[in-house]
């Protein structure tokens, strides 16, 4: 086993997938339905299964095209989240069923996005040691499930409209970063600045 590959895949998977678990728990608390877990799992598997099934072949795909498509999708769902947060904070009523369906799509999108962030690193590790990358990712996933269950009572206390604003800023930031990386060669070091900027912009738009 390649210890470096194992630790790298374990660390990045634990970091990214824990955010997906937290979002699933929060929506579970809102709608009292386990469907949020199912959608989060589906989002993660939709990314990680192809990552390991196709393995080394994915490293030959033109990453720029992947980033452009993913970036546009993230901007779209960032807008959807912002609109939903604005409705919630201004007490605009909607049908519960429609709001729940939209929320489950958000859970899927966030989970897939976090898995994609992990996959970008894991793909680069697979050629060095497939088994070590797989083991690290799998163990991290199991640990995320355990931590999510253990901390779910605390996680459920997070207020959803504010969470939507933060998630919207995150999706806007990642979408902008990925599109900017392709078009202008923007480095990931600017992600925190983008996030803070979008968070401030979202807050201002909600207050309008």
Automatic annotation (TrEMBL):
Query: Does Transmembrane helix show up as a keyword for this record?
Result: yes
Q: InterPro entries, per this entry? A: OFeT_1 (IPR031594)
Give UniProt keywords alphabetically: Membrane, Transmembrane, Transmembrane helix
Q: Which residues cross the membrane?
A: 6-27, 39-59, 65-82, 103-126, 132-151, 163-183, 189-206
Q: Does the keyword Flavoprotein apply?
A: no
Protein's recorded name = Uncharacterized protein
Gene source species: Candidatus Aramenus sulfurataquae
